[in-house]
Design goal:
Helix 5 crosses helix 6, helix 5 packs across helix 9 and helix 11 runs parallel beside helix 13. The chain has a 7-stranded mixed beta sheet, with helices on both faces. A 4-stranded antiparallel beta sheet has the order 9-10-13-12. It has a two-stranded parallel ribbon with strand order 1-11. The radius of gyration is 21 Å and the shape is globular. About 35% of the residues lie in helices and about 15% in strands. It is an alpha/beta fold and about 375 residues long. The longest helix is centred in the last third of the chain and has 26 residues.
Length: about 375
């Protein structure tokens, strides 16, 4: 009898639909506006020649510099392979498969459900309100057995911040029951909204961060978990022995130097200016139904005929992210903010669509 490899796998993994990252979705573009990356490379280079040695599990200089940058203490910081690993480590450390659950509020980041399914942990969804804020009564009713509540602010893919008063209410209702995990992948674009300063007041609050967005290091795969020291100690029990390679730690430390942080803040100024320009230009197109406000390096846009527009742009090498399958996002495409030239190319391509992009004069 021949061995069926698939049958050896766990049933939940066989049934799993993997997260469709921008790279998995492919495309042959030269204007990549689908992965919320910084559009240009940054000038960091290797400075260490110690690849014959295993790296530190938690590189001291990286931890110390990120703690200073984020306004927390070093024992409140864990560094990992992107914030995605942080999402998974929390589930592994705090959720018993087949017994505990996580909760999140779609439309939001797709890896919360994938990580839970991979580990065999139930996930519950409480859809966000029409304004993409938290439905607190519905969350309260669904908390039984929940160990982790994931909340993305600014939220991906909608671009909005979660109301801080609602977050406080969520933290109060989960006190002593569950951890609240605030995913702040895009916080550099609205630093005043960070919850990192709340960790002392709420020991069950966890904050996820990354160098992939404003720091322009998506290819580095370096993220951070900020939390009470007791939470960090538990995560250190389940993290891989050498989560960060030496080149990653080397470049991350450079990015978190004074010069590296200044460069990041320059990126934010440029991208915010490009976002404002692009949002204004999009509102003048008749193929655009709605441009949603954004606190991030992307804009969510509802189009009159998003499938046609998506494919037409795709065929021209301008790659956007289709959001039609997300709850409440019918007709929506997410557009990462590129260089000014890339934004102009996008607008020109939309204006050229037959019958779909006549310019609407603004009153």
């Amino acid at each position: 009898m021949s061995l069926n490899i698939a049958e050896l796998a766990r049933a939940n993994v066989r049934a799993l639909t993997p997260y469709q990252s921008a790279r998995r979705l492919g495309g042959n573009g030269d204007v990549w506006l689908n992965a919320n990356e910084y559009p240009l490379p940054v000038p960091f280079e290797m400075s260490q020649n110690t690849l014959n040695r295993y790296p530190e599990c938690q590189p001291e200089q990286v931890i110390r510099r990120y703690a200073a940058y984020a306004g927390v203490t070093p024992d409140q910081v864990l560094v990992s392979r992107g914030a995605d690993e942080g999402i998974e480590l929390l589930i592994r450390a705090f959720c018993e498969p087949g017994q505990d659950a996580i909760l999140f509020c779609p439309p939001t980041y797709g890896m919360y459900s994938v990580s839970a399914e991979t580990i065999g942990v139930e996930y519950r969804t409480v859809p966000a309100l029409d304004n993409w804020q938290l439905n607190l009564p519905a969350i309260a009713a669904a908390l039984d057995g929940v160990k982790l509540v994931y909340m993305c602010s600014p939220n991906n893919p909608t671009g909005n911040l979660i109301d801080p008063e609602a977050i406080r209410q969520l933290l109060e209702m989960t006190r002593g029951k569950a951890l609240v995990v605030a995913d702040e992948a895009y916080i550099e674009f609205c630093p005043q909204a960070t919850l990192a300063g709340w960790i002392a007041e709420y020991p069950h609050l966890v904050v996820l961060r990354t160098l992939s967005k404003a720091f322009a290091l998506a290819g580095l795969r370096c993220g951070f978990t900020l939390a009470n020291a007791a939470v960090i100690e538990l995560l250190l029990k389940v993290i891989a022995p050498y989560p960060l390679s030496t080149p990653v730690a080397d470049i991350a430390a450079q990015a978190l130097s004074d010069d590296g942080i200044a460069l990041m803040r320059q990126h934010v100024v440029e991208l915010n200016a490009n976002r404002a320009w692009l949002a204004t230009a999009l509102t003048r197109l008749s193929c655009v139904e709605q441009v949603f406000p954004s606190e991030t390096n992307y804009i969510l846009v509802r189009f009159t005929d998003s499938p046609t527009i998506f494919k037409s742009l795709w065929d021209q090498g301008i790659i956007l992210r289709d959001q039609n399958k997300n709850p409440g996002l019918a007709g929506c495409l997410r557009i990462s903010i590129g260089t000014r030239n890339e934004c102009e190319r996008l607008i020109a391509a939309l204006q050229a669509l037959p019958g779909a992009a006549g310019i609407v004069e603004q009153a």
